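Sample 3 of the quickstart, ligand guanosine-5'-monophosphate:
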Amino acid sequence: MDNDIEKVLYSRDEIAGAAKRLGKELTRDYAGRQPLVISVLKGAILFTVDVLKEFDVYADIDFVDVSSYHGGTESSGKVDLVREISSDIKGRDIILVEDIIDTGRTLKYLIQLLEEKGAHDVKVCTLLDKPEGRVVDVKADYVGFNVPNEFVVGYGLDYNELYRNLPYVGILKPSVYQK
Ligand code: 5GP
Ligand code: MG
Ligand code: MG
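Result:
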């Protein structure tokens, strides 16, 4: 897999450091509350585990699965709900954990869904933010790294379902998706 990567952006250690920092911030901000942590499948799984290990607060955990890419490197613009949230959302403080915010469409869709279900508050914790990609007006509250406007993979992020298990985040060689 390493041969398909043009450049490593964030090493395993840098990601661990960011997750630790965010977990500590969340611990401070959510002291005395009991938030529901919702991890957005599949991309956020590795990062969610890292953040949770640093999050020292009573919390329950759930998952939601959405899809907007359908295999390419450009967002399709349409968000599909692949797996519903099973927890009761009403009145809850929600921490949504994402891999990356690009256009912001996925996040906007999820925030609306949670608000319709009666969430009291929704905050967003993301490993990566690509502010240049933004098409709709949403923002993340806890950000690991701001990334340049390139297609990145690794640490949960895929290209055609591959590279999620790379232990770092890197830029994929264009030759891989131009094949
Ligand atoms: P948005 O709806 O903000 O455009 O995109 C959100 C989703 O698109 C992310 O959760 C992620 O799954 C995917 N995505 C956006 N940018 C990238 C990228 O650079 N690399 C990969 N692998 N996925 C991305
Ligand atoms: Mg995602
Ligand atoms: Mg994807």
